[in-house]
């Protein structure tokens, strides 16, 4: 006879669980943990573009101490490893809590008052601009900032600094997709919500390691698979998602345009084109059809290093499905042909009539939390709020009227983030403020980046941890985390969601908004920057975007709280938002049509030769985010993935953990080998979340797409060779008198690659 089940008495706990329950682990009545004095604050994750809903757990003292998944319809109670650990950064021992200042890089940092740090910064701005002109000072923002702050970055740069040199780190992320979207559709966002994936009969994922970079998005792929959808993955690596695909095309890095042109060639030859859709809704079809006529499967097979029959398989599977969708990410965007790569995917979707319908469409998967919203409201060098062009006289007039400045006062377009570094080297830019970015890890060709920043006469950074870039600055302003302020972000669907403030910031810490307003007041434009907080900025942003393709006017904080998110455009407060674009085949171009673009493949910018016969490609891993400034300080994430590695094919003769030197024309570094059949023999992969001497981006090339100005991170020529000793991972920088939180740094010394199965054959550590 089985024993009776234990009584459901919260005072009775198995050994070892009482501490958890005493900390607030008992399920709360009506989702309120009142019995422990705990508050659950609804918000969203600070990391990737999925923007999972979560609750931050706040104790009696008003401090964030934990997280619970939230049953938001984006993530349905799911969180990835980063989301589960994100709360730990809020009250982390490494937090900056006072401004840091030094008048020369030869001096050590010292803590300074806010008044001294602000006054010194303004004095340096005035000194540099008086001697060399307004454009001698630059501003770089970030796509992990709330949209209110990205709006302020653009306004602050052009109204307070009066400089044309304003850009942001989304330049390293989404701009190729943005450029393609604008050319083809006249609007820059994904065409379909995630929920449409569940209705698709065929999913094509190109250049996106969804399982590690956007883990919670995987539920939508699995949902489609459960109802019978086929899955096509285009990626040089056999990622976790690729292992489950019906067709995995492991093409050579840098050959995407040739592949998709060949797929379209087969669609045309086998009479799989949706001729009625193309005739009614497109321009440029004749030019596109002619451009792919000679790009046969055999031609693409030779360029891409794949079997020709895979081209035919993909064409038949995608074009033969009743409803097909294509999603892509950095894998096809981080190229000198990034915009054109994206256009070839758009051409395929258009030719097969897979746009603007439930289960049929096209989307770009945003990397940063506000990668979508961060490029909409003016911190990009060529754009003004609402996605307006800074070169358009009518757009300039509209924004000048809202901002209360003369049209002659608004600077012209500036240059891109990487181009600004080159201008620093040439002393065309002599001063810089950076907000929410870490170029010393995230930009390519580290030697060039370090040289450019070292040439600056003055450099200030905003951050809540001391990043590698901030550690090189003259002034560091300690600012809030996402949990200490409120604001909105737009996720990969272009769904605007609301982040709520969960706790007060530590003493001595201020919001990015407050710091920009204080600097603006000292620069003589106090009347243009008199915001009390995010809500006032958002109200101005709504007005500034009204009537544009990026219309936020109908979105309010109250509506976001009530609905859980609204997809723009949303022109009025009774408008439901626009989750799906292009219904009826209509785009945002004045003629309403899809403007198809002919593309001719060209090879990557870093040529192969006998010295550099292989391809190096880079990307993210599930435990870390972007430059790692946040995640390399969180113990569980460091323990899961303490260091970078190099993925190599077994044919090269290495064993797991062997020191492997990767050599490019920019330099060399030594990583432990992760030996796996999940990568092409002619390709190696390194994750990029760490600084020198273990920085993948010390090796990558700073070649740019001529239209989007995105760097070609995803392919450069390299060679590999045996080495004696693996390069050591440095601890994150720490402010004066501190060291990096030791509890999170122990595993950095592990010389072996991760044990988690990143691909076939990677669990072995001997």
Question: Secondary-structure map with pairings?
Answer:
Layout: H1 18-25, E1 39-44, E2 53-58, E3 64-69, H2 81-85, E4 100-101, E5 110-111, H3 114-132, E6 137-141, H4 147-160, E7 166-168, H5 175-185, E8 202-206, H6 210-213, H7 218-226, E9 230-234, E10 247-249, H8 256-269, H9 275-281, E11 282-283, H10 285-291, H11 297-304, H12 308-320, E12 324-328, H13 330-333, H14 338-351, E13 361-364, E14 383-384, E15 388-389, H15 393-403, H16 417-425, E16 431-435, H17 439-442, H18 446-455, E17 458-463, E18 475-478, E19 487-490, E20 495-499, H19 512-522, H20 534-545, H21 557-563, E21 566-567, E22 594-595, E23 614-619, H22 635-640, E24 646-648, E25 659-664, E26 667-675, E27 683-687, E28 716-722
Parallel strand pairs: 6-7, 6-16, 8-9, 8-12, 9-10, 11-22, 12-13, 16-17, 17-18, 23-27, 24-26
Antiparallel strand pairs: 1-2, 2-3, 4-5, 4-18, 14-15, 19-20, 20-21, 23-28, 25-26, 25-28
